[in-house]
Write a structure and sequence with these properties.
Layout lengths: L1 H17 L3 E6 L6 E5 L4 E15 L5 E9 L6 E9 L3 E4 L5 E3 L4 E11 L14 H10 L3 E3 L3 H7 L1 H8 L3 E8 L2 E9 L3
Antiparallel strand pairs: 1-3, 2-3, 2-9, 3-8, 4-7, 4-10, 5-6, 5-8, 10-11
Length: about 190
């Protein structure tokens, strides 16, 4: 009997030491792409594109982090991100507050990347694609419009989507107690 207990404790200790794995996985979501209109310039200046981020903790210890960083490449095409957590519903959370992934658990987030089209479309090449949306926004007196899912947008505006999202990544630096610990960065997969 003592051998069985010793074996069980040894196996648990070995498993606890070995299973300290965190994984990040991006995947498509059905959440809508959102565009922003400037009345002053009569153009679309911003576009928010959602991606789902699943964080899996295979450790017997909970893991915490502060921010989810969406990394734009080049960096100047984007302006931050908006973070939503998925539980029974989806709700917005602050990106600068501590978040915890439970032991042997998983957290799911929607990350809205925010691109500034006016920063790289200086010749208004892509603005032509937005004319039908601008017309609809003016008719409905809106400055924001949901224009479909990522899959739909990729089909209609493939070159623009590629220009916006190429080589982007998501990065999280986990905490080790009160200190910064392991950083995990993964490419965004569309």
């Amino acid at each position: 009997m003592n051998r069985a207990i010793l074996f069980f404790i040894s196996a648990l200790f070995f498993w606890g030491c070995q299973s300290n794995k965190l994984t990040l996985k991006s995947r498509l979501t059905k959440q809508p792409i959102i565009i922003k209109y400037s009345k002053e310039y009569n153009s679309i200046y911003g576009i928010k594109i959602p991606i789902q981020l699943d964080i899996t903790n295979e450790s017997i210890y909970s893991k915490s982090f502060i921010t989810i960083d969406y990394k734009y490449n080049p960096y100047n095409k984007g302006v931050g991100e908006e973070i939503y957590i998925i539980n029974d519903s989806i709700y917005k959370i602050k990106n600068n507050k501590k978040k915890t992934v439970p032991s042997l658990g998983k957290n799911n987030y929607i990350v809205y990347s925010r691109y500034r089209i006016d920063r790289f479309d200086t010749e208004n090449i892509y603005q032509q694609q937005f004319k039908p949306y601008i017309k609809k926004m003016l008719e409905e007196n809106k400055d924001t419009l949901h224009i479909g899912t990522v899959g739909e947008f990729k089909t209609k505006h493939a070159a623009l989507f590629e220009k916006l999202t190429k080589n982007d990544s998501i990065s999280i630096q986990f905490l080790d107690g009160r200190e910064l610990g392991e950083r995990i960065t993964v490419p965004v997969e569309w």
